[in-house]
Design goal:
Shape of chain B: globular
Radius of gyration of chain B: 23 Å
Helix content of chain B: 10-25%
CATH architecture of the largest domain in chain B: 7 Propeller
CATH topology of one domain in chain A: Serine Threonine Protein Phosphatase 5, Tetratricopeptide repeat
GO cellular component, one term (chain A): chromosome
Distance between the termini of chain B: 40 Å
Main location (chain A): nucleus
Largest sheet of chain B: 4 strands, antiparallel
Helix content of chain A: 55-70%
Keywords (chain A): Chromosome, Coiled coil, DNA damage, DNA repair, Metal-binding, Zinc, Zinc-finger
InterPro entries (chain A): ENTH_VHS, UVSSA, UVSSA_C, UVSSA_N_a-solenoid_rpt
Oligomer: heterodimer
CATH class of the largest domain in chain B: Mainly Beta
Pfam families (chain A): DUF2043, UVSSA_N
CATH class of one domain in chain A: Mainly Alpha
Strand content of chain A: under 5%
Largest sheet of chain A: 2 strands, antiparallel
Order of helices and strands of chain A: HHHHHHHHHHHHHHHHHEEHEEHHHHHH
Number of strands of chain A: 4
Strand content of chain B: 35-45%
Structural class of chain A: mainly alpha
Number of strands of chain B: 31
Largest interface: A-B, 28 and 28 residues
Chain lengths: 645, 449
């Protein structure tokens, strides 16, 4: 009975530790726990098996074993006592601090193992260190003698907590202080705000009846305002439209300035008040009554300010002015932006190096157009021009105008005049011959000389990444023109790296170019026909392939059968071999892969360097190189001494 | 346990055997003590440990960082983790910062055997310091010709106060605390002396083990060594067989016939004139019946073959005389442990189970009460062997690096070990009354599912 059960935990543990996953299968773990929980002998056996597994020369196995050990360690006292006896061995095998017994191969897993082991040791020490001297010793040794860095989880957590508490305390203190200040200054603040509000009201009163001449009641009576707000607003808008320019230059400018100032102050007050309200909401006091009263008052004040502000804004004049100022600022900034925009637009805007032509169509055709640049330039021009926006012809021409790089020829753009050769009045002293002051270079010649050469610039094409799905969940970032060396031809793929259906986009490229509807339709028709053809062809091909595959499979099967038969005939272990054959052929390949991976983890990954080395350092290649070299030497020699053979 | 107490109560068990039984059962349950922590102040490997011989309370340790420290093993200085653990911090430590402290590793530290007022440290800086415990000042300083490997003071001495020092030098020197000078220089070893040990049966007999593999016995009252142990000379069983012994007595007393004996007798003649205390010595060692054969072997100008005899291949790294002084345990760099009969000088051929021991530095062995067990540092573990069968009976694993020394306190049945990992560990029998109120969190099963 016990043997049987013993087998159970052994099988469970062994199956749990031969996976290549970074975690133990939770179901298996649960099973192990439940088996071990009810039987001490099972637990002892498990401890022994786990210690044996820790000795395996494979970090992955050790890693998984360590995870299981931790699970049991945190739960069972008996397991703890068993493990603790050999803790130094366990640590040697999991941390690998001894030089002569470092961790076994898969290096990345080994580092994970070490990290985990150290983490576990810290955990064990904090929870069971009191009861087990060995744990304390091991921890102390790794920490103080070997100076391993422990993650110090607990300590960091407590430290963070403490810091947070400290911060909270500080903020509370600050809030309290603020509250005290507020208590002291409340009256003055209130007064100040009230005075500002009053002044604004006065200013508005001064301004309003004069400029608008609307026979409305004074504005500071709020109920009236609300009552008539709609009509009032309408009227105000109208008034604004016709009368804006009027108060810009009117004699009541002083009042407006004051109003603007006051408005600014008011805005400041508003933010201050809002801050105070926040403080009041946040502050924690033993006595909440005073706070509540303050809060109420502040809310009242805020509402008051807001209403006054609204009034100001609705009165319009001052706000619009401010807004205009701001707009000017923005405009300034915008100009800077456009100048910084691109390399080409800089000379265009600033130096005026861009020549705008509306006539020469040839140039327009030859120079590649760049839409965004053009529009950029347009923007700049429109800003510069200001009022010229209204000229429709000009803007149209501008839209059409090509861009030409700046050069000398722009100076004589479109001129059909001959140029005087010596028009600068040079005295050619040492020239003995006759100097013709009127020598003329004909216009054709000039044109010829000024012929502008444009260098063909390749359009910057962004090479699409391969985007084939990788094992780590990302997509392949390689950028190859057509074929990725790892994943074959580059094809459009979605975010997960699944290939999109390749055909439609390929075909749809064509109609993009065409602008004519008829053309498009005909193309479509042609396409449809072609697609059908293609589909047919594909189907045929698939059929053919399937046939071929079937044939190949048949051949392979036959081969295997023959091999098996021969094996059976030749050896006495034939049955065994035959059984070995069976799964490899009949079972799904994933099973085989899985079995292999644990061993394959140990194998070194093939790097490009290896591949190159294999290619370059193989005997044939090196022999060829040697041969080539000797040939070269031979040739040299023969050249040097042609008379010898 | 309770039955034994009942027997003792009823008088069925004699007090002595009761005591011994209790002690041996306690020794058998030695384990790493969870409730006693010695906080080691050392920053180098602990080379030597000794509990004081008068009270069995103060543990003296010497370490490679040139420091020595004293701990009170009975009373802790503070309590950790909810009172479950008693911490023993050192009462004081002397290190390089001390004005007369050692410069290099302290290889040996021993208590003055009479009281705890003095202790002696030997160091690789060629000095032996004698310290006053209370003032922690150096009261005496001996300059040695080489690195000091081991110092020893006789626990029985009543008529001398000599510190025996084994050094790199071939000569063993005896430093006299009373006069502050070298009293003797014992020459005979052909290489440095790794270990020295005073006999526990005679205050004048000194045993030394050298790097040349020889174990020599010296009587400090006379020149030269009187015995070199030879590993090829062996006897079966604890004692030499009676028959053979009687035969040799007969042979030596009746007719000294063989030529070798005659030559030795000749050579012995001038020696006898010089030494007058041989008779006294014999009585001290307690072998008056075999006087004749003894004399033959006592010959100082021994045959060269005898003089060249080795006890181990390689160096002798550790020596320990049993409590009763009848047997000597030696450890060598050949990773062997040998048990010698002091009286006959024969290897008793006890086969201690294969062990691996440190080969390059002296190790300190310990024996238990009544010579039942011998504690031997074997690389990172300490093993307890049965003295007479050589079987491993206990294994103490706790150190993370090599163990250099151990000391057994027969009073408390506790074992102290010190190693290269700078730790001093206490191994003690489990507490009879396990304190269940173990601090904040109990140690118990915690199954979540």
């Amino acid at each position: 009975m016990e043997e049987e059960e013993g087998g159970k935990v052994r099988v469970l543990i062994e199956t749990a530790t031969i996976s290549t996953e970074p975690d133990v299968d939770p179901r298996l773990l649960k099973a192990i726990k439940s088996v071990v929980r009810y039987s001490d002998s099972e637990l002892r056996l498990a401890a022994r098996i786990l210690m044996d597994l820790m000795k395996r020369e494979h970090s992955q196995v050790r890693y998984l074993t360590l995870l299981i050990i931790d699970e049991l360690f945190m739960r069972s006292k008996l397991f703890r006592t068993l493990v603790v006896e050999n803790l130094d061995q366990l640590l040697t095998l999991s941390v690998g601090f001894r030089i002569h017994s470092s961790l076994p191969p898969p290096a990345n897993v080994a580092t994970a193992l070490r990290k985990k082991a150290i983490e576990f040791l810290e955990k064990w020490n904090s929870s069971f260190g009191v009861h087990y001297k060995q744990i304390r010793l091991g921890f102390d040794y790794l920490k103080n003698t070997l100076k391993y860095q422990f993650p110090n989880l607990q300590e960091t957590a407590t430290r963070l907590q403490q810091e947070r508490r400290e911060r909270e305390r500080k903020t509370k203190k600050i809030l309290l202080k603020k509250f005290e200040i507020l208590e002291k200054n409340f009256a003055s603040i209130k007064e100040e705000i009230q005075s500002t509000v009053d002044e604004i009201g006065e200013c508005l009163e001064i301004v309003r009846p004069k400029e608008e001449g609307v026979p409305f009641c004074p504005l500071d009576e709020e109920d009236m305002e609300e009552f008539h707000s709609y009509e009032f607003r309408q009227l105000r808008l109208q008034a604004l439209e016709e009368g804006e320019k009027l108060h810009e230059n009117s004699e009541n400018k002083v009042v407006f300035d004051a109003l603007r100032e006051l408005y600014k102050i008011l805005v400041k007050h508003l933010t201050a008040v809002q801050e105070w309200i926040l403080v009041l909401v946040k502050v924690e006091l033993t006595d909440n009554r005073s706070r509540d009263s303050y809060l109420k008052e502040f809310i009242d004040i805020r509402n008051n300010i807001q209403s006054v502000k609204k009034k100001c804004e609705e009165s319009g004049c001052n706000l619009s002015n401010i807004a205009k100022h701001e707009e000017e600022d923005f405009w300034e900034e915008g100009k800077i932006e456009t100048t910084e925009g691109g390399n080409f637009s800089l000379p265009n805007n600033r130096t005026g190096g861009l020549a705008v032509t509306s006539t020469s169509k040839e140039v327009q055709g030859s120079i590649p157009k760049c839409h965004d640049k053009e529009s950029d330039a347009n923007k700049g021009r429109s800003h510069e021009g200001g009022g010229s926006n209204s000229d429709p012809l000009r803007s149209k021409l501008l839209a059409e105008a090509p861009e030409v790089n700046w050069s000398n020829h722009l100076a004589s753009w479109g001129s059909k005049m001959d140029v005087l050769a010596n028009h600068r009045g040079l005295e050619l002293e040492s020239h003995w011959g006759r100097v013709d002051q009127d020598a003329v270079i004909p216009a054709e010649k000039i044109a010829e000389l000024n012929l502008q050469a444009t260098v063909y610039k390749e359009k910057q094409v962004e090479i699409q990444p391969c985007r084939a799905p990788l094992s780590n969940g990302k997509v392949c970032p390689r950028r190859d023109l057509r074929i990725c060396p790892f994943h074959g031809p580059v094809i459009p793929r979605d975010d997960e790296g699944k290939p999109l259906n390749q055909n439609p986009p390929k075909d749809e490229k064509a109609p993009d170019l065409g602008t004519d509807l008829v053309e498009q339709l005909t193309k479509q028709a042609v396409q449809n026909v072609r697609e059908k053809d293609k589909e047919l062809a594909r189907k045929r091909e698939i059929d053919k392939k399937a046939l071929k595959r079937a044939k190949l499979a048949k051949i392979r099967e036959h081969n295997e059968a023959v091999l098996r038969d021969s094996a059976i005939a030749s050896t006495s272990k034939s049955a065994f071999i035959g059984e070995d054959w069976e799964p490899s052929t009949s079972r799904n390949p994933s099973f085989r892969n899985k079995k292999k991976t644990l061993a394959s983890m140990l194998q070194k990954k093939e790097t490009p360097k290896d591949r190159l080395a294999r290619r370059i350092l193989n005997t044939r290649a090196s022999a060829a190189t040697v041969r080539q070299l000797t040939l070269g030497e031979d040739a040299n020699y023969r050249e040097a001494f042609p008379n010898q053979w | 346990m309770w039955r034994q107490i009942g027997d003792r109560e009823a008088g069925k068990l004699r007090p002595n055997s009761f005591l011994n039984r209790i002690k041996s059962t306690r020794i058998q349950t030695l384990q790493l003590s969870n409730h006693k922590d010695i906080i080691s102040p050392h920053r180098g490997s602990v080379n030597t440990l000794q509990l004081d011989l008068t009270e069995g309370r103060y543990l003296l340790s010497g370490a490679s960082d040139a420091s020595a420290a004293v701990f009170d093993v009975q009373r802790g200085t503070d309590y950790g983790r909810g009172g479950a653990i008693t911490r023993h911090k050192c009462l004081f430590a002397v290190d390089k910062q001390h004005e007369h402290g050692h410069k290099y590793a302290v290889s040996s530290a021993v208590w003055y055997p009479v009281d705890t007022g003095l202790f002696v440290t030997g160091s690789y800086d060629h000095h032996i310091n004698v310290w006053d415990t209370n003032t922690t000042q150096v009261v005496m300083d001996f300059k040695m010709p080489g690195k000091v490997y081991r110092t020893a003071m006789s626990p029985l001495a009543t008529s001398h106060m000599l510190i025996a020092a084994g050094t790199e030098d071939v000569q063993v020197r005896l430093c006299d605390i009373a006069s502050g000078a070298f009293a003797h220089t014992l020459s005979g070893h052909r290489d440095g002396v790794m270990t020295v040990e005073w006999s526990t049966s005679s205050e004048w007999v000194l045993l030394t083990g050298g790097c040349d593999g020889a174990i020599r016995f010296w009587d400090i009252r006379r020149a030269g060594c009187f015995r070199v142990l030879d590993q090829s000379q062996s006897q079966l069983g604890r004692r030499p067989p009676i028959l053979e012994r009687s035969a040799t007595i007969k042979g030596s007393t009746v007719k000294p016939s063989s030529p070798s004996q005659s030559t030795s007798a000749k050579a012995r003649a001038p020696q006898r004139k010089l030494s007058n205390g041989s008779g006294a010595k014999h009585s001290l060692i307690g072998k008056s019946p075999v006087k004749g054969s003894m004399k033959q072997r006592l010959h100082p100008g021994m045959l060269s073959s005898q003089d060249r005899a080795t006890a181990h291949y390689g160096a002798v790294t550790g020596l320990k005389v049993t409590e009763d002084g009848m047997y000597l345990l030696s450890a060598g760099s050949d990773s062997r442990l040998r048990l010698w009969d002091v009286e006959s000088g024969c290897n008793t051929l006890v086969n201690f189970e294969t062990v691996r021991m440190q080969t390059s530095r002296p190790i300190q062995l310990a024996t238990s009460q009544n010579s039942e067990l011998v504690f031997v540092p074997c690389m990172t573990a300490v093993k307890a062997f049965d003295m007479w069968s050589g079987k491993t009976s206990l294994k103490f694993r706790g150190h993370y690096e090599h163990v250099n020394c151990c000391w057994f306190s027969s009073q408390d049945q506790e074992l102290y070990t010190g190693g290269n990992d700078r730790q001093i560990l206490v191994w003690s029998p489990p507490r009879l009354v396990s304190n269940e109120d173990e601090g904040p969190s109990k140690d118990e099963d915690n199954w979540s599912d």
